[in-house]
């Protein structure tokens, strides 16, 4: 069944959070891995209707440290329908979904997340 939401433009929205880890794992999800991750996460955690897929997950190291752990940024890019770029950027952050994605990628990384997901980029 097709809904009106399906006809809205599709945007890639990258959300970012901070995590602290004892070491920095190499996390850079490929397109094929993102497809598999989408299906795995969707089966356990239904996506909001306007979100169609996970298109990327990346972990990058920052200069900071806290209690001997390395500060890192986790970025999750979601493909989603929105009325326009502004709506995509300022819409509700799917915090529970982002947490589930981080957990599916790496439970240790997820445990260190601050939970302050914010939009970093829309394209």
Question: What can you see in these coordinates?
Answer:
The protein is α+β, with helices and mostly antiparallel strands and 123 residues long. It has a single domain, classed as Alpha-Beta Plaits (2-Layer Sandwich). Helix content is 29%, strand content 37%. The protein is built from 4 helices and 4 strands; from the N terminus they run βαββαααβ. Strand 2 and strand 3 form a beta hairpin. The chain is globular.
Explain the layout of strands and helices.
Layout: E1 10-21, H1 31-44, E2 51-66, E3 69-81, H2 85-90, H3 95-105, H4 107-111, E4 118-122
Antiparallel strand pairs: 1-3, 1-4, 2-3
The Rg value, from CA coordinates, equals 15 Å
The largest sheet, given as strand count, sense and whether it forms a barrel, is: 4 strands, antiparallel
Distance between the ends: 27 Å
| Helix-strand makeup class | alpha+beta
Mean residue pLDDT: 91
The sequence of SSEs as H and E is: EHEEHHHE
Helix fraction bin: 25-40%
Please give the CATH architecture: 2-Layer Sandwich
Low-confidence stretches: none
Counting structural domains, the number is: 1
CATH topology: Alpha-Beta Plaits
Q: Hey, roughly how much beta strand do the residues contain?
A: 35-45%
Specify the CATH class.
Alpha Beta
